[in-house]
Structure prediction request, 628 residues.
Amino acid sequence: MPSAKDVRELAARVRRGDRAAAARALSIVTEERPGHEALAGAFFSDHGASHTVGLCGSPGSGKSSLVNRLVTRLRAAGETVGVLAVDPTSAFTGGAFLGDRMRFQAHSLDDGVFMRSLATRGMMGGLNATIFAAIHVLEACGFSKVLVETVGTGQDEVDVAEVVDTVVCVSAPYQGDEFQAMKAGTMEIGDVFAVNKADLPEVERAVAMLKDALSLNPLHDGGWAPRIAPVSALTGKGVAELAADIDAHRAHLASSGELESRRRRQLRRELSLVLSRRLYRDAMARVTDRHIDLLAAKKSSPQSLGGTLLAGRK
Amino acid sequence: MPSAKDVRELAARVRRGDRAAAARALSIVTEERPGHEALAGAFFSDHGASHTVGLCGSPGSGKSSLVNRLVTRLRAAGETVGVLAVDPTSAFTGGAFLGDRMRFQAHSLDDGVFMRSLATRGMMGGLNATIFAAIHVLEACGFSKVLVETVGTGQDEVDVAEVVDTVVCVSAPYQGDEFQAMKAGTMEIGDVFAVNKADLPEVERAVAMLKDALSLNPLHDGGWAPRIAPVSALTGKGVAELAADIDAHRAHLASSGELESRRRRQLRRELSLVLSRRLYRDAMARVTDRHIDLLAAKKSSPQSLGGTLLAGRK
Prediction:
């Protein structure tokens, strides 16, 4: 268990831009090692220091390659970039995709880029409180942009909208089921829609379909009209325009007052996740074999036993 | 709010095999409508009445078509089948995939089959307590098999192992990233591995790769050696053998004593999910705008405020 002094010193090193210290802090908070709550608490005050951008989209949309292109573009524009790739890796292996590790090497010699894969961990599923702590570490370390890339379809994609300032949804022509999944889950949350594989002739149809779908929902938070950006991660075409759309959204957030309301939503979500995580641990710690015996014998139900366990707490 | 008598009557109708009553009960418990806890409590006693089978696998593996084939096979063998498709649809639309609705029609005239899409809902992500309640409703309704199909990669896939008796992982040759995702998240939880698209020549290589990967983890729960079943959802080839493997696993669970330990694990998970859901609601009800003001002004952190809110409970 690190002492309060250790926590302060590590936080100070991260705030001086020390990448090794940031890597260590990230491991502690995301793997929930001893002291993670104190450390997360220490970095919380950096909330809001960076422009946070979430990138969602199904596997096959070419999102990972697009992130690489976007990082290159942001660096050329003088930004520093932290990237958190949230992957569906299980609690069993705890590891990241081999593919992630490989692609991260593209920027491994650039000190202005920091990339890390995070497993979405454990019992509760979806994005958990540690994603916020991880973002705050990168904010403290001084990155002007923090990208949060979700891998896979599912709850993570929708969750990310409550975690970041700007949401970019990535799709690609002819994705079949994948395109449907995007529509069902993410049409409502996208601020910018990147249509990848713009090198393919089918991209025009995909852009038209997306425009149609978006027209059903023209009023977005604070009067922002979601933008559609055809891009090619393969050739790099359109990536500069995508970066400009992302920055335009950030400027709109500031000028419309929507930034404050999004950040309050982030705070509410972070608090609720921190709370629920603690509560779940509390609840699990109170469940004994005797409770399971009662359930197995059908002498109680989870609902009535839950009530009993909660009443015992008061 | 339904009365205790309403709950009893609805439960009695479901137990007589009334499909319309089952549909209504499912809506109440999965959408957490008024009375859902009383109803879920009433159906809990049916836990364990059916053989529950989880099917996981990434989009593109052809899992949905395979489930349709499997249902047809199970019906031919005299079983009745309930299917719960857990889909990544957002809290925003609350709806199911169009594709799901279409494929469900294949069995819509067969009273021995009941299919329902469930959205994984709201804040907590992943599978939540309502999946257990939904299973118990179908168990009460007398289905001999209850299939739980997860859609998408991610936490749901790993979660399903703590919800069902038998886990079937579906993959397909040449899935690229998808195949990696399966290895990272689900190699440890599969009791049976269905390799779909066995009509393609590449299937042999996929089976060989899977055998290699499984050989790293030869000792499975209770001495079961995971089986590999090449299948073709397109032609139906191998589906009978897959059904036989699933039943062989169920027989193994019973003879080895592993069934009891899996069911206790299910009970523990169900209880913890019910508990944490209630605790979360309680805690969130106590979060006010003043708390968010404190966080926005950086006068507190989620970690210390969480502690204060929980202490206030005692």
Q: What stands out?
A: The longest helix of chain A spans residues 258-286.
